[in-house]
Structures are given as structure tokens and as C-alpha cells.
Amino acid sequence: MQNDTISFRVQPGGTLRGEARVPGDKSISHRSIMFGALAEGTTRVAGFLEAEDCLATMNAFQAMGVEIDGPENGLVSIRGVGLHGLQAPKEPLYLGNSGTSMRLLCGLLAGQRFDTVLTGDASLCRRPMKRVTEPLRAMGAVVETTDAGTAPLRIKGVGRLRGIHYDMPVASAQVKSCLLLAGLYADGQTCVREPAPTRDHTERMLTGFSYPVVRAGDTVCIRSGGKLVARDIDVPSDISSAAFFMVGAAIGEGADITLKHVGVNPTRTGVIEILRLMGADIEVLNPREIGGEAVADIRIRSSRLNGIDIPEELVPLAIDEFPVLFVAAACAEGETRLSGAEELRVKESDRIQVMADGLQTLGIDARPTPDGMIIRGGKLSGGKVDSHGDHRVAMAFSIAALRANGPIEIDDCANVNTSFPNFVELARDLGLNITAICGEII
């Protein structure tokens, strides 16, 4: 259960070797449910991520009258109700820890004819929502937040919105996707300009569901009046989940792993590019396209990493991978500098401060800045760190034990189930000496 206390204990050392397939891509799994529900016909999904975040999205659509079978071994069948077939839920939609669910659903529901309330756990209800509610209000949406601009979100069904041209102040795929979904119910054209490229799964999937999307340079536009046509979806493995083992193999002794069927959408491969700049030995094998998404196998072997200045243009392409990239920097020779990543402060935790605190506890010179961090590589010691309920922080510190000189204990790890429910088992199979302890505070 989400409320259980789960801690990780990871013994130092270990070697990652072998082949593995990490769970399905979280971003694509969310969107497969959303677009399948809005489509005409039955959408069948293989490789669906059976994690709490994606199940929250599935439960929300079931509460709005959509018939969904599964998931069973990653297979889901969604009987779409069309763009205007959703029904008013009887209760507030509880979205757990899923920021993707809340921000995208906010746009989708702003144009419905019924009222809804979106809520979530304590962590989600602290995350900023003004970045979506303010442009939605410019489209005519009526969305109420707390005084702090956070959830619960109370959305009044206005029935119709108006299209706008919105210049995003900060690159965010969630904001872009929210407004494109709202654009399905808006008069005229809705255009979103992004200051830097962000993941484009929404645009790709809309196109795959036969809904016209127009991209011109840094701007993507959509008009209402079309329809989504059901299709089959094969969800690739999530590169954000693969990133933990990519870094683990790069920093570990004698490591050699191959991660199968990984999504390598060009808006998501910043982690590969950054690790290569640091000197990592990474091969992208058997590249192919499945359902409009680039997929490949990725082989990673032990290497000697060097500190770098991370190019700012790569930051949006690796925004979810920085917790484990900070671990790579801690194991690199010299200094690594990150800037332009203020978005990390408003994730499931303040990932800049939380990672800096943990790395300092483990003996690393990690200095947080307003929009990034400066890390001088060194020797990792053992110790106890707090993930602050952030799944990616918990997994990143688990990987750090490969180079630590003592055990690492990580508190508050239950939310790993939001994105990577079999992380402990798969990590152990590959060679990490990790144990999950339930119901115990260490």
C-alpha cells in the first residue's frame, strides 16, 4: 500500500551484468489511456506500465464511464467513448502522486460540460499548478486552486473554450500537453510555443490516433472538430527507468549490461548524450520504430567518467534523469556543473536540494545553486539518506551504493511503486545488493 513505510538498504559494491527489460514508458502509458478513452473504437495496449501513477490515470477514466479491461501482464483494452462521451464522476478524482495525470487531465476536463475535482496525495497537493491553470483561464476555463495555486483543483464544466497562442515561459511537456488537450475543445486554433524542445509523446500519439497536429519550428498547433480513431499501442521500455542502470553500469566495476526495447525518442535521450559527454561507454543497438516511437537496445559497460559543464540545451531532454546523473557526477573525476534546471525544484521533491543533502551525507562536495548544482567527484561513503518520498531520488541513491565504501540506507521509498514497481527485484537480478524493508523506519 502507498501508506506503508518502505526503506531500502543497499550493501556497497556489486557488479551489474546481464540483460533486462525495464517497465514500460510512463509518459506513453498515461497517454495511451487518455487517448484510447477519447477515441472511437477499442484501443489495445501492450507493455502498459502497471505502476501507481498510470493506474491513477486509468482509475480516473473508469470513474468517468470508460470501460477498461486489465492491466494483465501489461495488456490493457480501452473501449473509447469519443471526445464528448465522458461522464461526470460521482466523487473527486484521486490521482495519488501523479503530476502528469493531474496536469493533463486539468486541460482535458476544462472543456467538458460537467464539473470535476482533482486531488492527490500530500506531495502532489504541494506541487505548483498555476503553470497550467493560468493559460487555461486565458482559454476561458474556470479552475479554482488553493490560495497557494495548488490542488485540489475544482474545474467547472464550461463546455467550450477558446483557442490561444501561448508562449511557454519554461519548457514543460506537461504544460504543452495540457493545453493541446484543452485545444481539442476550443474554438479556433490552439498553439503552444516552447522555449526548448520537450518530450513530444502527445503530438506523436495524437497523430497516431489520426488527429491532425501541425508543428512549425518551435510551435505546435491543434484545432477542435476532429476525432480520434482507436489503434493498437506497443509501449517501449521507459528510458527514465533505464537511466538508473545505465549510470550503475557506467560507474560500477566490471559492469556490462544490455537494456532491451528502450524508447529512444529524440526528445528523451539527453541522459545518453550527457553520459557520453562524461565518457561513458554506451552503444545504441538495433534501432527501430514501433508505433511512431523510436526504440533500441542499449549496451553500457564500465567506464571512467569525467566532470563536465552540462549543456543547457540538453536539460529539458533529461529533466527526469538528473537525480541519477548527479550520482554519476559524484563518481566522475573533476567537477560537474548544471545550470538552467530550476524545474527540478518543483518535482516530487526539490530534487536539487534533496540530492545535494544526500550526496553531502555520503561525503561528496555537492553545492546547490538556484537552478542547478556543482558537484566535485569524490569517494562515496555509506550513510543514511532521506528520499523525501521521491521515487527517482530513492532509486538514484540505491545506485550510488555500487561505488560506496559502506552500506547506504534510504528512507521513505514507497513511491518507487509510482514508476518502477519491480525495481528492487530487477536491480537484484542485475547485481545490486539491495533489500526493501517494509513497515520499519531506519
Q: What distinguishing features does this structure have?
A:
four-stranded mixed sheet, 442 residues, alpha/beta
How does this model look, in words?
With 442 residues, this protein is α/β, with parallel strands linked by helices. The chain contains twelve helices and 25 strands. The protein has helices at residues 26-38, 52-63, 99-110, 130-138, 173-183, 201-208, 239-251, 270-277, 322-330, 351-361, 391-400, 423-430, and strands spanning 6-10, 17-20, 42-46, 67-72, 75-79, 93-94, 116-119, 142-144, 153-156, 161-162, 165-167, 186-187, 189-193, 214-216, 219-223, 232-234, 256-263, 281-290, 293-301, 335-338, 365-369, 372-376, 383-386, 408-411, 434-438. The chain has a four-stranded mixed sheet. The longest helix is centred in the first third of the chain and has 13 residues, at 26-38. The two termini are 19 Å apart. The model has no long low-confidence stretch (mean pLDDT 95).
